[in-house]
């Protein structure tokens, strides 16, 4: 009887209320810790700031465009004159292709100052390749193809004597290049050798032979 009375006088056990962690299936809650909500989920793509290499590449591209534009302003007339005197039938396209080539390989140049010399070299090589292509193409046609010079090219040719231009175009390619680079562009022998990819001695030989041939042609014309 005393035991039953002691049990009856004892206070009732507290009622346990399930928490959200206990109610959610498959999730365990550590006793004694409070529920901390997780970070909110962001919908849509998250912008990523540009990295250092990307910024460096963008700056390099911008500098390359500025340098090539400067080369265009400084050397386009002389490059067009060079291509015309070397005998190109489409000097504007030759020079445009040369500028595209230097834009594509500008980062490989040792210094920006080397760009002008490289540009002259590219123009000479492109004209040489173009003339060879035309020589091969004209062997397979019955009539020669007449090329119509642009107004800009015609103006350049009017500045020089037509007879001298015709005699110049009849020279071998190397002699013609050496004379044009020396007497029309005013380059030194070392610069000519670098542009043509030959030795200084070869430059002297081509220049002397070409000049002798031109002198003879003009004397015969008189």
Could you provide a short overview of the structure?
This protein is an all-alpha fold. It is built from 10 helices and no strands.
Series of secondary-structure elements, N-terminal to C-terminal: HHHHHHHHHH
- β-strand amount: under 5%
Rg measurement, Å? 40 Å
The tally of strands reads 0
Total count of helical runs of at least 4 residues:
10
End-to-end Cα distance, whole Å, is: 154 Å
Low-confidence stretches: 19-24
Give a quick account of the main beta sheet: strands, pairing sense, barrel closure.
none
Percent helix? 55-70%
- The average pLDDT value, as a whole number, equals 74
Structural class: mainly alpha
Any idea what the shape is? globular
Question: What does the model show?
Answer:
The protein has 222 residues and is mainly alpha-helical. It has helices spanning 2-9, 20-23, 52-85, 91-104, 114-138, 151-158, 162-169, 173-184, 189-196, 200-221. Helix 4 crosses helix 5 (114-138). It is globular, with a radius of gyration of 40 Å.
Protein topology:
Elements: H1 2-9, H2 20-23, H3 52-85, H4 91-104, H5 114-138, H6 151-158, H7 162-169, H8 173-184, H9 189-196, H10 200-221
Helix pairs in contact: 3-4, 3-5, 4-5, 5-9, 7-10, 8-10, 9-10
Spell out the key features of this protein:
0% strand, mainly alpha, 222 residues
């Amino acid at each position: 009887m005393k035991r039953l009375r002691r049990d009856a006088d004892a206070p009732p056990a507290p009622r346990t209320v399930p928490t959200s962690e206990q109610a959610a299936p498959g999730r365990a809650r550590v006793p004694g810790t409070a529920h901390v909500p997780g970070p909110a989920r962001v919908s849509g793509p998250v912008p990523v700031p540009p990295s250092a290499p990307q910024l460096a590449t963008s700056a390099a591209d911008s500098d390359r465009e500025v340098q090539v534009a400067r080369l265009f302003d400084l050397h386009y007339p002389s490059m067009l004159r060079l291509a015309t005197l070397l005998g190109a039938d489409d000097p504007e396209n030759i020079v445009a292709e040369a500028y595209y080539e230097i834009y594509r390989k500008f980062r490989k140049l040792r210094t920006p100052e080397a760009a002008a010399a490289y540009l002259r070299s590219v123009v000479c090589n492109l004209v040489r390749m173009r003339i060879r292509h035309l020589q091969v193409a004209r062997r397979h046609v019955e009539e020669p193809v007449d090329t119509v010079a642009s107004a800009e090219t015609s103006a350049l040719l009017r500045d020089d004597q037509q007879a001298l231009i015709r005699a110049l175009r009849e020279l071998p390619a190397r002699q013609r290049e050496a004379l044009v680079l020396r007497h029309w562009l005013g380059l030194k022998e070392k610069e000519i050798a670098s542009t043509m990819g030959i030795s200084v001695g070869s430059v002297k030989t081509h220049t002397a032979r070409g000049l002798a041939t031109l002198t003879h042609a003009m004397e015969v014309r008189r």
